[in-house]
């Protein structure tokens, strides 16, 4: 018995009967030899972690566009917080921590520069629309590794595709990530908004503070414990009605006071216009795309979709750089 097989045996002995056991994965679109050390979900986690799309998350907006300060979240720190929160819950429920981690690390790989503002801009101009959760799947199935994709397992892709609020993950591990994504952004966006002076604890209704806690840290702790207590030994990931309703109220408060706040979002109009201009430029001149994206068009991918692939893969700063390169006049001199 090799190391991987011993891990698989340990999963069968120790994990909940509702867990997704590595040995029972529905597999990959393209069959490949098993690793003698890592389970299939451990391999998926590592492939995502070493991907180019994952590295680019460090320079993509979470909520605050180009924030001045070292402590504001980026798309990468959001991803890591989702992963850690989800792993904590999975470990407590004896579910597959490796699967949870792989889904969490991959769930936002397809996000645009400038967060949801960038997503809205591409969705408005692309004839087929644009959604980051679908783009994340496109990244792992096609765009990474020069058009070969990462060849992830079915369970990881299912969790990535269904991480949005309206999603329905097929595994409990996917259900955990879906809920932890929401928990994490409410938690850390509130923390960032308080740091920016946009909102304070006094703006949160006293009933919510009594139910969830009086600080960001206390609220996160309450939300995690509630899920663990209500999901233990069950075939679904569950929140109590009281905590679920309180979290929904807190989320609405964030939308009303932070996500649509003029102070936090005043640069969004510029970002949307910039990405729209980039889309129109590359749609008219696809030969200006980098070589790997030109190849996708030559291989039969729709030009409009490939232009979205290129722009959505950009970091905030790279998209600004390309816009300046294309549209901003440069000083010149004659010697």
Question: How would you describe the overall organization of this protein?
Answer:
This protein has 335 residues and is mainly α. It has helices spanning 3-14, 40-49, 52-56, 75-92, 97-106, 115-125, 132-147, 154-161, 172-195, 206-212, 216-231, 241-259, 262-265, 268-284, 291-298, 303-312, 316-327. Helix 4 packs parallel to helix 11 and helix 14 (268-284) packs across helix 17. The longest helix is centred in the middle third of the chain and has 24 residues, at 172-195.
Residue runs with pLDDT of under 50 for 5 or more positions: none
Mind summarizing the main beta sheet?
none
Number of helices: 17
Number-wise, the strands total: 0
**What share of residues is helical?**
55-70%
Strand percent estimate: under 5%
Instruction: Give helix and strand order, one letter per element, not per position.
Output: HHHHHHHHHHHHHHHHH
Separation of the first and last Cα atoms: 74 Å
Helix/strand-derived category reads: mainly alpha
Gyration radius from CA atoms, angstroms? 21 Å
**Mean pLDDT, all residues:** 93
The 3D shape can be described as flat
